[in-house]
TrEMBL record:
It comes from the Eukaryota. It comes from Xenopus tropicalis (Western clawed frog). GO terms for molecular function: ceramide kinase activity. GO terms for cellular component: membrane. The lineage of its organism: Eukaryota, Metazoa, Chordata, Craniata, Vertebrata. Pfam families: CERK_C (PF19280), DAGK_cat (PF00781), PH_CERK (PF25382). One of its GO terms (biological process) is ceramide metabolic process. Gene3D superfamilies: 2.60.200.40, Probable inorganic polyphosphate/atp-NAD kinase, domain 1. Residues 155-305 form the DAGKc domain. Keywords: Kinase, Transferase. This is Ceramide kinase. The gene is cerk.
């Protein structure tokens, strides 16, 4: 009688040699697992001679073989196929060959499997294991089966466009790519077109010209500034190709389907750290090879009806704007420029007067102080984006995004810092980030307002970014989860007229006495906006979050507990 069910995938189970041990190696296509365990030699048998049983092949139907292939065989290793980097024929190592006393047999065949091994703190390494056997037919059967199963990983990139900034961070971008990344890409059979940038915005401009269709992803080697270039190039290109006017702050932007990979080689590497959990080039390369996909919110920044920039990490005015302003003058210091500038800015202790208006992100499930961290396959991101999509469908359709006008909140005051972050902004300087519970793809940003406070209080707030204590738990700090916001500085003159109006140039560039309270000591010029580490010229801006506008070769932060439970390459 014919069965209605599709045939069960065949389990391949053989005794192969690994170094000088005999191993039972199993490929279970049904469960997408490759596992191996050492076979203990029977008493009285010579350990160095696996003997005739070496070529024993257990080639059984799935159900029959299950009993001999537990998921984590004792003393064995199990690797999900999704975490195999590559499989290839291996060179015969003469040393082993001679010591195996196989001279009387035909020359053995070997294949190497490279796979991901998890280390501490989200670091990944590429480990390899080589299996040997003397039966040529069996060898080709294994090679074929492994290649076939890897072919089914269709989300993996085959062709990548790589931009390297040779001057980012400690100026090691090229070296990092050549030594740590290119060998892995080549082992995984990925073809690359590599462009070493020759000037700022080279990558951005190139993305407007290049045939992006022929690539499965774009990789940037550098820091947040280099990522920002690629982000602007890709988003800009997609909007141009789909006739979306990016100068319209309410335009419904078209999503970018081509994924971006980040090989960290910058000074802060915040986007990489916050989406992978570490700024480590090899770890990033492995996430790219496995074809990870992490959707990411993007904020658009406008001044009136003019597009200024996109931001994915920090859009900050006041403290972080000033840190950036001074650090740009000291680029020669490399990554240390931010610490020097941070110290200087801290001592200067400026506050800025203005008005912030925002609309809360009502549909989101989380809130900035709920301590629910965004992790891989984040439930909050999935639900929030679904809710947002439904909400947008019910609103009037069209190419414009329509916000209800009735729920604006306006806060006026003097601020040490105004920070809008659409992700945690975790980075090596602050491993939990500016807003630890912000989500990568929920369609919202956390708006953090740090009001005028004493220098000591501001230091206490800053120090909390380096510990597990709540940096929002101060009377002078407020945080809101928003879908958009607008800022107008108190000393705002229409910046459009500034280039021709001597009076207003003077107002912008020279100290202003706070007109309402001449004795309050609020004596300062306007700050600037720090947009993912790039300066923005205008101070009066509006920002809007675009839910999951782009995708990265990343998977978010793997939950430590989960990582432990399913750690695939765990030896029990
Ligand atoms: C006492 C130690 C307190 C340490 C507090 C550290 C808080 C660090 C928070 C970092 C948040 C980074 C957000 C990411 C922004 C990126 O889009 C952008 C582009 O790469 N990077 C920066 O703007 C670069 C921003 C770099 C900011 C560095 C701030 C350093 C502050 C130092 C204050 C020293 C006070 C010492 C008093 C004795
Ligand atoms: N060939 C080049 N010459 C000069 N500048 C370049 C070149 N290629 C890229 N850039 C610019 O260099 C700036 C900084 O680069 P990058 O982000 O890689 O390093 P970083 O600023 O040290 O790190 P981070 O942004 O993480 O703080 C970017 O704004 C980018 O536009
Ligand atoms: Ca977000």
């Amino acid at each position: 009688m014919e069965s209605d069910h599709p045939p069960l995938p065949t389990v391949l189970c053989s005794v192969l040699s690994m170094k000088r041990q005999s191993c039972e190696v199993t490929l279970d296509p049904g469960r997408s697992l490759l596992s191996w365990r050492e076979l203990r030699p029977r008493r009285g048998r010579d350990r160095s001679r696996p003997g005739i049983c070496l070529t024993r092949m257990l080639h059984r139907a799935r159900g029959l073989v299950n009993s001999c292939t537990p998921q984590f065989p004792s003393g064995g290793v199990t690797v999900p196929v999704a975490e195999i980097v590559s499989v290839g024929e291996a060179e015969i190592d003469e040393k082993y060959y001679n010591s195996m006393k196989w001279q009387h047999m035909c020359k053995p065949h070997a294949f190497t499997v490279r796979y991901v091994q998890r280390k501490r703190k989200h670091r990944w390494r590429c480990k390899e294991v080589t299996f040997w056997c003397s039966d040529e037919q069996l060898f080709y059967q294994w090679l074929q089966a492994l290649h076939d199963i890897l072919e089914q990983q269709t989300h993996r990139p085959k062709r990548l466009l790589v931009y390297i900034n040779p001057y980012g961070g400690k100026k090691r971008g090229k070296q990092i790519y050549e030594n740590k990344v290119a060998p892995l890409f080549s082992a995984a059979g990925i073809c690359t077109d590599v462009i070493v940038t020759e000037y700022a915005n080279h990558a951005r401009d190139n993305l407007y010209e290049v045939n992006v269709e022929k690539y499965d992803g774009v990789v940037c080697v550098g820091g947040d500034g280099m990522f920002s270039e690629v982000l602007h190039g890709l988003i800009g290109r997609v909007q141009k190709d789909s006739d979306v006017d990016h100068n319209n702050p309410n335009a419904q932007l078209s999503r970018c389907n081509i994924r971006i990979g980040i090989i960290p080689a910058g000074s802060t590497d915040c986007v990489c750290y916050a989406t992978i959990g570490i700024n480590d080039p090899e770890t990033s390369a492995l996430h790219i090879i496995l074809g990870d996909c992490q959707p990411l919110d993007v904020c658009s920044v406008h001044h009136k009806r003019t597009f200024l920039k996109y931001s994915v990490s920090l859009l900050g005015y006041g403290f972080y704007g000033d840190v950036l302003k001074y650090s740009e003058k000291n680029r020669w210091l490399g990554p240390a420029r931010y610490d020097v500038s941070g110290f200087k800015t801290f001592l200067t202790h400026h506050c800025y007067e203005g008005s912030v208006s925002f609309q809360p992100a009502k549909w989101v499930l989380g809130s900035p102080r709920d301590q629910i961290i965004c992790t891989s396959r984040c439930y909050i991101c999935r639900q929030s984006s679904k809710q947002l999509e439904e909400q947008q469908k019910t609103q009037a359709c069209g190419s414009e995004h329509r916000d209800q006008d009735d729920d604006w909140t306006t806060i006026k005051g003097k601020f040490m810092a105004i920070n809008a972050v659409s992700m945690s902004c975790a980075c090596p300087r602050s491993p939990k980030g500016l807003s630890p519970a912000a989500h990568l793809g929920d369609g919202s940003a956390d708006l953090i307002l740090v009001r005028k406070c004493s220098r000591l209080d501001f230091l206490r707030h800053l120090i909390r970014h380096t510990s597990n204590k709540d940096q929002f738990d101060f009377p002078f700090v407020e945080v809101y989860r928003v879908k958009n916001f607008q800022f107008t500085p108190k000393h705002f003159e229409d910046e459009d007229t500034e280039s021709t109006d001597i009076g207003s140039i003077g107002k912008k560039n020279f100290p202003q006495i706070c007109t309402d309270h001449p004795s309050c000591g609020c004596n300062h010029v306007n700050s600037i906006w720090n947009c993912d580490g790039e300066t923005v010229d205008q101070t009066a801006i509006e920002m809007r979050v675009h839910c999951q506008l782009i995708k990265l070769f990343a998977r978010g932060i793997e939950n430590a507990k989960l990582e432990d439970d399913v750690n695939p390459s765990k030896v029990l």
